[in-house]
C-alpha cells in the first residue's frame, strides 16, 4: 500500500522534507580504492604505443584554479573515502600485503565566500609516511650499520649513539622499511587516493622531504638517469610519478561517461628563481610568482602547460623536465638535486549529465621533489654549490617555520608564506583546500642520525596540519548541479502526488484496516477480565497499546490522504474554471472575427448573416431541434 509514502505530504512535514533535501550533499560515486598496479600496467602496455617526446602545445597564462571562469565557484563533491595506505603500519616488502585503511568524512556544510559557493568537506590531516632508504655501498664500506628499528604500527625507533641516551620513538601513518619496493610506495602511501581525488576535482599534492641523499628523487622518479634516458614507462625501477601517471590513465579509462583534459607543467625553484623546465630558454629567464585575488592563491605567470592526451605525453613532460633541472655533485650525493621541482598535472573532467548538460570539475595533482637539507660541512660545498645549499636551506627553513605555525592549532598566527617562493607555491597544499601527502625520506645510518631525527620531527609536526579539501567547479556548473538537485526533488514530490491520486481510486478503508499483519486483541467480556491469569492480562494490554498506536498512525495517514485529495480537488476545480473562461473567450472572439467569413461553415441564404460564424455543432443541434419541433 502506498499510504506510507504519503506521510511525506503531511502538511506539517512538507517544509522540513524540502529543507533536508536542500542540505543533502552531492556525492560522487565511490571509487575503487585498491587495485593492482601491475594489472593496470599490463592493460596500458597493450593499449599505449610509444611516441616521440611531446611537442609543446600551449603556453598558458592560467591562473591557479585550472582556468576557472570569473566568479567561479568551488563546490565540494564526493564522499571522502580516505585510503591512506595501511594505517599505522610498517612495510618491509611487497609480499606483506594489506589493504588501504579507510576513514570516512562527509561533505556537510554550505557556506558562501564572496561570489562563490563552497560546499566543504571535513577537515583532512596532512598524511605523512616515512621511507627509509637502504644502506649505501659507501656507507657499508665505512662500517655503518642500521640504527633504526621498525616495531610495526607505523613506528620508527631511533637508537642513540650512546647507550646512556634514550631511544626516540616516532609514529606515522605508514613506514616503508629499506626493503620496500617502488610498487609498495604506490600501493600503500595513499597516493592512489590522491589521484582518485584529483580526478574528482580536488587539488592534491605529494611531496618528498628529507636531507640530501635520503632518497627523495629515487622515491619520485627512480634511480638517477632512469627517466632522462627514456626507459619504458613500465620499467620496474620507476618511481611514484610514472606509476601514478599509469594509474591516472587507468582511472580515466574507467570513466567513459566523462571527457578528460590533462595538462601538465613542470618548474623548478633554483636559487629562489622559478624556472620553467619545459621551456627554460638559453638564459633560463625566471618566471614571476603572483597573487591571484580571484582564487586567493599564488600562481606562476606565463608557465608552459602541455596538453597530455596519452601516457607518453605525460611521460615526455617528465623526461623533458628531468633533463633540464639543476643537478650537481657533492660528497654525499653524486646526483644531488640543486633545486625544488614541482610537476603539476591538471585534470579537467567534463561530465555529460542528463539533458546534455555538461558539468566540469578542475582537479590537479602536484608532485614536489624538495631539494635536500644540507650540512655544508658534511657535503663540503663551495662556490656555486655552497650558494645553492644556502638557498635550499633557507627556503626549507621557511617551510619548516610555516609547518610549525600551521601545526600549532592554538597559537596559530601569521604564516610567512611570502618569505620564499617554495612556501608561496605550497601554501594551498599546506593549509588551503587541497589534500596533501608528505613522504619523509630518511637514511638509516649513524652518521645521518641528527638529520634523520630532524626530518622525523618535521614530519611529526606536519601530521598535525589540517586542510579543507573542496572541489573546484565553474560557477555555471555549480548552479546547474544545484538546479538539477532541485529538479530531482521536485520529481520525487511529483511521484508522491501521483501515488496520492492513485490511492484516491484504489483506496478502501475496510481493506486497509482489516488487512496487513497487525495483531488485533480478541474481545473479552469485562467481567471475565478478572478471571484471566496475569500473563494473559499483560499480553492483552500490550495488544491494545499496539492497536492504539497503529490506529493513530492510520489516522494521521488518512488525514494526509484527505488533505491531498482536497488540494487536488481544489486544483482541478480551478483548472476547470480557467478552461471554461478560456472557452468563453475563444467563442466570443470567433463570433466577432472579420476573418472567419473567408471560410464559413455554412452558407446561409440570408446575405445579411454572411459575416456571422456559427458553431457547426450548436447550429446542427438547433437545426435538428427546429426540425423535430416542426
Ligand atoms: N629506496 C632506495 N633503494 C635503492 N636506492 C636508493 C633508495 N633511495 C635512494 N637510493 C639511492 O641513493 C642515492 C641518493 O638518492 P636520491 O638522489 O634520491 O636522494 P635525494 O634525497 O633526492 O638527494 P638530494 O636532496 O641531494 O637530491 C641514489 O643513488 C639513489 O638511487
Automatic annotation (TrEMBL):
Organismal lineage: Eukaryota, Metazoa, Ecdysozoa, Arthropoda, Hexapoda
This protein's name: Kinesin-like protein
Principal subcellular localization: cytoplasm
Kinesin motor domain boundaries: 125-465
Transmembrane segments: none
Biological process according to GO: microtubule-based movement; mitotic spindle organization; spindle elongation
Family of the protein in this entry: Belongs to the TRAFAC class myosin-kinesin ATPase superfamily. Kinesin family.
Coiled coil: 562-589
Subcellular location: Cytoplasm, Cytoskeleton
Keywords, sorted A to Z: ATP-binding, Coiled coil, Cytoplasm, Cytoskeleton, Microtubule, Motor protein, Nucleotide-binding
Domain of life: Eukaryota
Keyword Glycoprotein among UniProt keywords: no
SUPFAM superfamilies associated with the record: P-loop containing nucleoside triphosphate hydrolases
GO molecular function: ATP binding; microtubule binding; microtubule motor activity
GO cellular component: microtubule; microtubule associated complex
Biased composition (Low complexity): 96-105
SMART domains according to UniProt: KISc (SM00129)
Region Disordered: start-end pairs: 22-119
Annotated InterPro entries: Kinesin-like_fam, Kinesin_motor_CS, Kinesin_motor_dom, Kinesin_motor_dom_sf, P-loop_NTPase
Amino acid at each position: 500500500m502506498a499510504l506510507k509514502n504519503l506521510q511525506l505530504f503531511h502538511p506539517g512535514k512538507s517544509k522540513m522534507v524540502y529543507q533536508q533535501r536542500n542540505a543533502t550533499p552531492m556525492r560522487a560515486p565511490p571509487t575503487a580504492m585498491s587495485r593492482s598496479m601491475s594489472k593496470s600496467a599490463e592493460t596500458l602496455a597493450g593499449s599505449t604505443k610509444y611516441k616521440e617526446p611531446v611537442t609543446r602545445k600551449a603556453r598558458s597564462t592560467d591562473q591557479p584554479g585550472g582556468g576557472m571562469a570569473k566568479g567561479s565557484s568551488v563546490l565540494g563533491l564526493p564522499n571522502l573515502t580516505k585510503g591512506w595506505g595501511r594505517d599505522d603500519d610498517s612495510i618491509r616488502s611487497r609480499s606483506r600485503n594489506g589493504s588501504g585503511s579507510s576513514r570516512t568524512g562527509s561533505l556537510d556544510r554550505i557556506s558562501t565566500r564572496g561570489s562563490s559557493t563552497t560546499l566543504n568537506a571535513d577537515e583532512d590531516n596532512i598524511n605523512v609516511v616515512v621511507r627509509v632508504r637502504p644502506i649505501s655501498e659507501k656507507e657499508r664500506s665505512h662500517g655503518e650499520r642500521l640504527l633504526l628499528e621498525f616495531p610495526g604500527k607505523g613506528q620508527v625507533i631511533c637508537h642513540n649513539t650512546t647507550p646512556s641516551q634514550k631511544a626516540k620513538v616516532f609514529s606515522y601513518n605508514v613506514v616503508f622499511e629499506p626493503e620496500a619496493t617502488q610498487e609498495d610506495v604506490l600501493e600503500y602511501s595513499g597516493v592512489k587516493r590522491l589521484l582518485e581525488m584529483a580526478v574528482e576535482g580536488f587539488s592534491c599534492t605529494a611531496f618528498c622531504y628529507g636531507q640530501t641523499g635520503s632518497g627523495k628523487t629515487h622515491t619520485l622518479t627512480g634511480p638517477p638517469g632512469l627517466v632522462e634516458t627514456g626507459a619504458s614507462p613500465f620499467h620496474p625501477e620507476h618511481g611514484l610519478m610514472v606509476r601514478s601517471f599509469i594509474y591516472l590513465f587507468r582511472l580515466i579509462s574507467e570513466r567513459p561517461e566523462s571527457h578528460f583534459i590533462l595538462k601538465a607543467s613542470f618548474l623548478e625553484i633554483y636559487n629562489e628563481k622559478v624556472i620553467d623546465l619545459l621551456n627554460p630558454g638559453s638564459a633560463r629567464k625566471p618566471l614571476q610568482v603572483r597573487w591571484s585575488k580571484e582564487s586567493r592563491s599564488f600562481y606562476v605567470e606565463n608557465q608552459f602547460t602541455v596538453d597530455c592526451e596519452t601516457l607518453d605525453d605525460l611521460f615526455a613532460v617528465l623526461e623533458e623536465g628531468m633533463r633540464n633541472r639543476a643537478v650537481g655533485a657533492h660528497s654525499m650525493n653524486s646526483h644531488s638535486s640543486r633545486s625544488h621541482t614541482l610537476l603539476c598535472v591538471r585534470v579537467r573532467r567534463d561530465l555529460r549529465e542528463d539533458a546534455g548538460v555538461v558539468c566540469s570539475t578542475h582537479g590537479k595533482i602536484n608532485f614536489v621533489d624538495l631539494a635536500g637539507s644540507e650540512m655544508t660541512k658534511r657535503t663540503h660545498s663551495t662556490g656555486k654549490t655552497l650558494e645553492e645549499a644556502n638557498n635550499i636551506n633557507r627556503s626549507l627553513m621557511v617551510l619548516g617555520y610555516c609547518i610549525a605555525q600551521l601545526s600549532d592549532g592554538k597559537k596559530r598566527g601569521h604564516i610567512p608564506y611570502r618569505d620564499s617562493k617554495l612556501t608561496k607555491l605550497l601554501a594551498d597544499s599546506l593549509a588551503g583546500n587541497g589534500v596533501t601527502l608528505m613522504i619523509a625520506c630518511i637514511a638509516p645510518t649513524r652518521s645521518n642520525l641528527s638529520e634523520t631525527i630532524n626530518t622525523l620531527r618535521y614530519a611529526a609536526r606536519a601530521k598535525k596540519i589540517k586542510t579543507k579539501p573542496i572541489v573546484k567547479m565553474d560557477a555555471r556548473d555549480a548552479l546547474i548541479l544545484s538546479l538539477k538537485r532541485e529538479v530531482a526533488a521536485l520529481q520525487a514530490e511529483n511521484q508522491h502526488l501521483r501515488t496520492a491520486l492513485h490511492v484516491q481510486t484504489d483506496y478502501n478503508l475496510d481493506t486497509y484496516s482489516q488487512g496487513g499483519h497487525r495483531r488485533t486483541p480478541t474481545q473479552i467480556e469485562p467481567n471475565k477480565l478478572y478471571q484471566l491469569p496475569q500473563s494473559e492480562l499483560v499480553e492483552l494490554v500490550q495488544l491494545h497499546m499496539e492497536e492504539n498506536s497503529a490506529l493513530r498512525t492510520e489516522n494521521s495517514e488518512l488525514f494526509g490522504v484527505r488533505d491531498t485529495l482536497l488540494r487536488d480537488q481544489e486544483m482541478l476545480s480551478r483548472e476547470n474554471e480557467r478552461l471554461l473562461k478560456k472557452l468563453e473567450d475563444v467563442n466570443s472572439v470567433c463570433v466577432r472575427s472579420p476573418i472567419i467569413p473567408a471560410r464559413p461553415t455554412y452558407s446561409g441564404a440570408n446575405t445579411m448573416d454572411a459575416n456571422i460564424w456559427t458553431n457547426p455543432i450548436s447550429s446542427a443541434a438547433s437545426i435538428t431541434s427546429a426540425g423535430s419541433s416542426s
